[in-house]
User: Fold this.
Amino acid sequence: MSPAELRGLVAALVGEVRVLQERAETLEMENRALRADNRALKDEIAHLKNLPPRPPIKPSRPSGMDKATGTKTGKRRRRGAKRDSARVSREVTLAANAPAGSRFKGYETILVRDLVVAAEVVRYRRERWVTPTGKTIVASLPAGIVGGWGANLRRFVLACHIQGQVTTERLTALLTGIGVDISKRQVVRLITDHLDAFVAEEQGVLRAGLATARWITVDDTAARHANQDGYTTQIGDDRFTAFRTAASKSRAAFLAALRAGHSDYVINNEALAYMRGRNLAGPVIDRLAASPHKVFADSAAWQAHLTALGLDRLAVAPNPVRIATEGGMWGAIRHHGLLAGAVIVSDDAGQFRVADHALCWVHAERLVHKLVPATPHQRQAVELVRQLIWWFYRDLKSYRASPCARRAAALSARFERIFRRRTGYVTLDRLLSRLHRRKRELLRVLQRPEIPLHTNGSENDIRAVVTKRKISGGTVSDAGRQARDILLGLMKTCMKLGVSFFAYLGDRLGVPGADKIVPLPNLVCQAAQA
Assistant:
């Protein structure tokens, strides 16, 4: 055969193989459906014959929602009182009323766990001295006392409100019932005031997390503040979590959160590359690059620089002030060593498409699941595509466990077959084409197998914000908003690091005898090296 005939034969055989592969996938889908129908008929026959039901088995099809990122697996801890044998706080010997002539046979031991909650009012008599120079010296109060309220009381209030999601009204009623004479306003003050140490540590956690992260997942949810609609953004991985609430869910708000407390703007190579990627006009980029001023301390200095360059007078698209501001923020993020080589995994919200970006497969499949087919053919097409996606997703998880170049090439070719197929259902075909255009972000795991395939960790973290919103509504003051974001983030970080939030509060508030907790930023960095 001539070379042309051989090429034609190979092309024909490749086409037949593809047809056979698609037919095999269709037959496997139909086979599964027939097995399910057969199982249902057997169950119905067993029910009619009054036979015992079939024992439940775990479904082989993936549910679509894996365990959240950061879930700890391993040896299960023992339950019961045996774990507390080394933590006995006091011992009580009970005498039995034995008749005369009985023989003593030792003791029968039982460990009883109890909780002591009682109101306590302590009178501190502080010595006062007058020095020979006339200066008055007063003895210092113990650590943790703020405004006449002790550290134990404040720890109880913070733990109940943040971790227990107890409202301030119910907290007031609970404390009053225990015997603490306190008002709702004072409860709010205990939650929102004197948080400087927590704010500094939470900011350190975010900076340490972003500086050492190989990937982060992000998500946002609605949050009311000062009777206005706003949004809370979650940022984190399997070691830390941070929340930031802003008036909008714009790209600038997301980049401001990623700056982790820094307020500067920096024009560097990363900033200029960001502006080019956002299609900012070349002459505008040249102005910014040619200017001798590269670092600006705050927003006022940055806006003055843009005005001096005349960018605020340009009526072009895209808006040069907005794109340049976003670029200055991204330059500051990279200038401070944050997100170096990290992948941002999101649900495809536009504001999260920054730097090296990957998409959540669960949200991608959800688009197919939400379709409303009108005919049996359309329903069969949707079910077939969903099954193919979940089989592909299962193999991607297997690839993460043992990656290799050959499997990556095979998965990439299989992605092409799934998302280039034409089913005859126009809406589904358009959706598949749309997902195919995002191939690079959906298959980012092939180059970076350490990243998760979903944003379930963010979904789990941000559920605490949603629960608080449903129970307590929105926040009114800036201090209340800050307290909610900071303390919820610290609580989630403690959970991921295996630290008791109650013990953490005890150490930071100065509760006498509380266990010492290592600074959380240090633990986040140590977890990155593990």
Remarks:
- The first helix runs from residue 3 to 48.
- The chain has a mean pLDDT of 90.
